[in-house]
């Protein structure tokens, strides 16, 4: 014989489970959400590097940490595109159809991020500026080829 508490728990599980499964089907796969978080983090750290390099804010001691974060994020991004994670995201299926070309586009980002990190650690303002420009160009290039327009455009 079931206790009242156990029966109530069973009812809650039966009612809540379909809602939880349905909620998971409404959005992008968790891997796509994670990838989006990496990209937003990369964008935010690059914005901070830009503001610091331009002298818009006076926390130059922070640039090393931001550059290190950019380098770390750039090394993770390639692994953040498992096949089957385009649904619900702005990632083009062309990524997986042309995987080698996609990875070739990623390499300059990783190289630029490593150069940015090295320049920031050395206090090389010219190196920071050059690496920052290189990274920004790789972001645009990859998004042009492999990122879908926002919904409704």
Task: Furnish the topology, listing elements before pairings.
Blueprint: H1 4-26, H2 30-53, H3 63-77, H4 94-97, H5 99-122, H6 125-146
Helix pairs in contact: 2-3, 2-6, 3-5, 5-6
Task: Report on this structure.
This protein is an all-alpha fold and 153 residues long. The chain has helices at residues 4-26, 30-53, 63-77, 94-97, 99-122, 125-146. The radius of gyration is 21 Å and the shape is elongated. The model is unreliable at 1-23 (pLDDT under 50).
Largest sheet: none
Give me the Rg, rounded: 21 Å
Instruction: Tell me, briefly, the overall form.
Output: elongated
Helical coverage, percent range: over 70%
> What's the number of helices?
6
Which band does the percent of strand residues land in?
under 5%
Beta strands, count:
0
Low-confidence stretches: 1-23
- Topology order in helix (H) and strand (E) letters: HHHHHH
Distance between the termini: 59 Å
**Nearest-integer average pLDDT:** 86
Structural class: mainly alpha
What's this entry about, in short?
The protein is 73% helix and 0% strand. By secondary structure, it is mainly α. The model is unreliable at 1-23 (pLDDT under 50).
For the structure shown, list the relevant keywords.
153 residues; mainly alpha; 0% strand; disordered N terminus
């Amino acid at each position: 014989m079931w206790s009242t508490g156990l029966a109530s728990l069973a009812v809650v599980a039966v009612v809540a489970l379909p809602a939880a499964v349905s909620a998971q089907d409404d959005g992008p796969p968790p891997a796509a959400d994670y990838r989006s978080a990496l990209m937003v983090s990369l964008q935010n750290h690059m914005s901070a590097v830009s503001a610091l390099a331009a002298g818009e804010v006076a926390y130059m001691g922070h640039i090393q940490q931001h550059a290190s974060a950019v380098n770390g994020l750039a090394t993770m991004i390639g692994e953040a595109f498992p096949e089957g994670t385009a649904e619900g995201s702005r990632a083009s299926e062309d990524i997986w159809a042309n995987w080698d070309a996609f990875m070739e586009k990623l390499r300059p980002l990783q190289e630029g991020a490593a150069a940015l990190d090295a320049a920031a650690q050395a206090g090389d303002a010219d190196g920071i500026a050059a690496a920052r420009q290189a990274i920004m160009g790789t972001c645009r290039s990859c998004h042009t080829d492999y990122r879908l327009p926002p919904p409704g455009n």
